[in-house]
Specification:
This protein has about 475 residues and is α/β, with parallel strands linked by helices. Helices cover about 35% and strands about 15% of the residues. The protein has 14 helices and 15 strands. Strand 14 and strand 15 form a beta hairpin. The radius of gyration is 28 Å and the shape is elongated.
Length: about 475
């Protein structure tokens, strides 16, 4: 039998919800819509639902608005039917319903992130530990201590030991054999980078070497290092080395493909910094592309670095990318529709409301509170006294009637500016909510089991500090 769904909504959203569900045409489920008796769907509470929804419920699941604040488990226990949150916007219901029974799982991945601290030798031990812990919290699995040429690193061994004591995995990245020995003796888990000429020196230490060609681009040299490691019976990771654009990038991509063809099962690494750091482009897109390549070639180790300010969130970007790619690969699907964390500047669906939806909603509003929305034709603002639209929000101010209300004018100015930025970039805008920048900025943490603080539009003048 087809699953029967019960959708709870409010007065203003009901007609929109009906149209979205009707537009689905043939579905694998049947449904019913219940107006719970509140004007704004997100303002329904557990108490309201418990009082106005009468058991028994003829449904396999009850779908609540995504912005509902309350304890879903208590409702589930009360009515004996699973209560779940749908998407924040009605427009996203088709995608949500397309994944019925199969929520996106981004908890899994198969890629190890090495996060390099390039100036490790210049940092005090305390500063080094703090940086390492921050990188680990961002998603790094291994902290890579970068050693600078002709720069003493007298506390290298102590640094390795301190990070290991914190429960972190550590790699040492140096062109100096002496520094690599010191790191290995102190307990480093990985050594970057060894060649066919130096691998024999480190068999006794037990650290996993990352192997590179003795001469740039020489895949045969890498092959001899691989053979030596296998003959010695030691674990290793091979890195054909990714070069920057215009300095061998295309040829280096070919090397990775050829390396995987020659050695189908060996562990491999890709250092992404030569692309993310040395290309003036938002690093999230570059990271997504390289993570996709790694996913196809089963490259399960990446070395990431942040030196340039535009790559400040590179560990978070790699962490999100590896999870999206793993999920998509597991589903034999395109890496699309799983997560918006790498869509930082634009959104795939920037307008949750059509122009017609906004017109209908504006016609139903009777109170004086301003609603702000965006659509393909610009920024809309409306209340019971009128409905206005503009591309340049400064044009709206003379018609809003808030010249003598400083607090309200300030709020509307800030909110309308945010809406204009979103409209120009093609990002999604929601009133009283921060713009979503994916993993490019720390996400606001919300507890959706509790009611949110009143938004600016719901605060009275006495609530606003003078």
């Amino acid at each position: 039998m087809a699953e029967h769904l019960l959708f709870l909504t409010g007065h203003l959203a009901r007609s929109r919800l009906e149209r979205v569900l009707e537009d689905l045409k043939e579905t694998a489920f049947s449904y019913e819509i219940v107006d719970i008796g509140v004007k704004v769907a997100a303002l329904m509470t557990e108490e309201i639902i418990s009082r106005r929804l009468k058991p028994p419920l003829v449904a396999e699941r009850v779908i609540l608005p995504g912005r509902y604040r309350g304890d879903l488990q208590r409702l589930t226990d009360r009515f004996g039917v699973p209560f779940v949150r749908g998407p924040d916007e009605v427009a996203d219901l088709p995608v949500f319903l397309g994944r019925v029974g199969k929520p996106v799982d981004l908890s899994r991945h198969d890629m190890r992130i090495f996060a390099e601290i390039v100036d490790a030798s210049a940092l005090s031990l305390d500063a080094l530990v703090k940086r390492a812990e921050k990188l680990a919290a961002a998603g790094a699995d291994v902290i890579d201590l970068g050693c600078l040429p002709q720069t003493p690193f007298p506390h290298l061994g102590e640094a390795v030991a301190s990070l290991k004591a914190k429960g972190l995995q550590v790699s040492v990245d140096s062109a100096s054999l002496e520094e690599l020995r010191t790191g290995a003796a102190a307990g480093a888990d990985y050594l970057l980078s060894l060649t066919e000429e130096t691998i024999g020196l480190f068999v006794k230490y037990g650290a996993t070497p990352i192997l590179i060609p003795a001469s740039p681009g020489d895949l045969d040299s890498l092959g001899r290092a691989v053979d030596a490691a296998e003959a010695a019976g030691i674990s290793f990771i091979a890195d054909p080395v990714l070069d920057p654009v215009h300095f061998g990038f295309a040829a280096s991509l070919a090397r990775f493909i050829e390396a995987r063809r020659r050695w189908p099962h060996i562990p491999m690494m890709m250092g992404t910094g030569n692309l993310t750091e040395l290309t003036d482009a938002d690093s999230s897109g570059v990271t997504a592309l390289l993570a996709g390549l790694c996913s196809e070639l089963s490259i399960q180790n990446v070395l990431v670095v942040n030196v340039s300010p535009h790559t400040v969130r590179t560990v978070e970007e790699h962490d999100r990318a590896r999870r999206v790619m793993f999920a998509a690969k597991s589903d034999h699907a395109l890496p699309r529709g799983y997560d918006a964390g790498l869509l930082q500047i634009h959104d795939r669906k920037p307008y949750p409301h059509s122009i017609e939806d906004i017109d209908m909603l504006a016609a139903d509003v009777r109170d004086a509170n301003f609603r702000i929305m965006t659509a393909p034709d610009g920024v809309h603002i409306f209340n019971g006294k009128g409905h206005r639209r503009a591309h340049d929000v400064f044009e709206l101010f003379p018609e809003l009637g808030v010249e003598t209300d400083g607090a309200h004018a300030f709020y509307l100015g800030a909110e309308l500016t945010k809406a204009e930025i979103a409209w120009k970039l093609g990002k999604r805008y929601a009133q009283d909510e921060p713009l979503a920048w994916g993993v490019a900025a720390p996400e606001k943490q919300e507890d959706r089991t509790r009611l949110a603080e009143a938004g600016h539009t719901l605060r009275t003048k006495k609530d606003v500090a003078p």
